[in-house]
Design goal:
globular; 0% strand; 12 helices
Length: 363
């Protein structure tokens, strides 16, 4: 039997063969083109799906952070834990910007929180510098000063980024109008961001201006504090203005009494259970080398016997940390040691000061 069917008179080899090519070849000839095309399409859909998943994850995490994480952190009084949270969570939260999420508000808070880690290290180097000077160890003193400036620069960099994000969210830093602060969370972000801006300027100054924080930030902060209710936020807005005016008198009205304002901010903080106003008073006194007011502020802070606001223990703890740091500077400059344990609010030359540390008991 023949392998090929017999041809009839009506068969036309050319047409028949061409027809077979027309019916079969589109599938076989384009299969090599369709396969990679479909692969690209499916890969794009898969990537788009991942992007949507990432964005959804970011949105959920950011909303959770704003609704729950911040509230929980603010209710805690462990500053070191808050510092660690800021350093560890900031890269994760900010990475969700790449997929379309908007973590700027949280960014304002976590960058400032992370900056406290660098400020603490800068303080330790400053105390080492003082001890080295007293011991006549020039090399040690120089090394400590170098490291101190490095940490001040790191703190300023983080605080500047916080302030940049504040400007990015609310876009009201260059004029006299206030942003629309829709909630207590927005107001908290605004206040912390303003404080971060001030701290960025101070830390950059301590780092020889190496970060390049704009010098118009204090004037912007003064305007920004007027957008907050002073009594609601424990006297902090007025305290920030007064502290800046005491350091930079040109920013304030000619007849302003910055110290009276600081005393009022301090008392408001005592009344409301968040002592940031007292810490601002102490910081201003230290900057002005007003030893009498500084000691008065430290003693007033320590002697406060009211209840700390349960929802803002972290901010009060940060204020405590600021005051203790100032006391440590005073003690180390005079005695070579930081404030003895349990002695915050006391000073080496107090008349009723008993014997120094019981070294024998410690041993």
């Amino acid at each position: 039997m023949s392998r090929h069917p017999e041809k009839t008179g009506n068969d036309h080899p050319g047409i028949h063969q061409q027809g077979e090519r027309t019916m079969s070849n589109p599938v076989t000839s384009h299969r090599g083109f369709l396969a990679p095309l479909l692969g690209v399409v499916f890969s794009a859909l898969a990537l788009q799906g991942c992007s949507l998943i990432y964005k959804t994850t970011g949105d959920i995490l950011i909303h959770y952070g704003q609704d729950e994480m911040v509230a929980d952190m603010m209710a805690d009084d462990d500053v070191a834990m808050g510092c660690a949270l800021g350093e560890s969570m900031t890269p994760l939260l900010m990475s969700f910007e790449r997929v379309g999420s908007k973590p700027d508000k949280l960014g304002v808070l976590v960058y400032v929180t992370a900056s406290t880690c660098a400020e603490e290290k800068a303080l330790e180097e400053e105390l080492r510098y003082s001890r080295a000077l007293q011991a006549g160890n020039v090399s040690e003193a120089r090394d400590a000063r170098t490291n101190q400036k490095r940490y001040h620069a790191l703190a300023a960099k983080r605080q500047q980024e916080s302030y940049r994000r504040l400007s990015q969210v609310y876009r009201k830093m260059e004029d006299d109008t206030c942003p629309r602060l829709r909630s207590d969370f927005d107001e908290l972000v605004w206040m912390v961001g303003l404080i971060g801006g001030v701290q960025a300027v101070l830390n950059d100054g301590a780092a020889d201006g190496s970060v390049g924080v704009p010098r118009n930030v204090p004037a912007q902060v003064v305007r920004g504090t007027r957008c907050l209710d002073n009594d609601k936020w424990w006297g902090v807005p007025e305290g920030v203005r007064a502290a800046l005016w005491s350091i930079l008198p040109a920013l304030g009205p000619e007849d302003v009494d910055a110290w009276t304002m600081l005393e009022r901010a301090e008392q408001t903080g005592f009344d409301e259970g968040v002592r940031l106003g007292s810490a601002l008073y102490a910081q201003a006194a230290y900057t002005q080398a007003n030893d009498e007011r500084l000691r008065e502020a430290i003693r007033g802070f320590v002697n406060y016997d009211g209840a700390v606001h349960p929802d803002y223990r972290m901010l009060d703890a940060i204020a405590h940390h600021m005051v203790r740091s100032l006391s440590d500077r005073l003690w180390t400059e005079e005695t070579g040691q930081r404030t003895p344990f349990g002695k915050l609010g006391e000073f080496w030359d107090d008349e009723d000061e008993e014997d120094d540390l019981d070294i024998e008991g410690l041993l």
